[in-house]
Design brief:
This protein is mostly helical and about 170 residues long. The chain has a single domain (about 15-160), classed as Ferritin (Up-down Bundle), CATH 1.20.1260. It has seven helices and two strands; from the N terminus they run αβαααβααα. The chain has helices at about 5-10, 15-40, 45-70, 75-80, 85-90, 105-130, 135-160, and strands at about 15, 80.
Amino acid sequence: MTEGTHGIDRLRGKTSLREILDVATSFEASARDFYTDLIPKVSKRIRYLVEELAAEEQSHYDLFSTLAQRSDLTEQVKAEIERTASDSKFSDCLHVPDLGAQPDDQTVLQYAMGREHAAMMHYGELANTTPAGPIRDLFVYLASEETKHKLDLEKLYYETVHRGGGV
């Protein structure tokens, strides 16, 4: 490997916190829009959950948007950190599936669990690699939030699918 190629490979392994915030903001917006669009299509048994997920994604979007606009963080968002192992899986979640006009509860819950898992892993890894400060604090908070969401979804999934519908 030549020195030039090695340098390019090293740069590909890094990203700025600005880029991370931009992708995370897009992730939250796509999730919000997906869940909002899903509300009238899902069964009444899980509609409340989809409404809650849409509201949560909106609040996460608002947190990222507010943080990205803070002038006191200008230097921190320029910082470069290593790309996380979960980076590509997280980015893949920007593309949401078409679940059809009337998706069944199991399909909705499976998709939501996968999305929450990807977010939980990604924000957790970012919390471990981001320099101390408000952005790291946000990633710690979001990793915890996504973990709670995933656990709630798993419980509901178990009740719905394995117990025959306790919702």
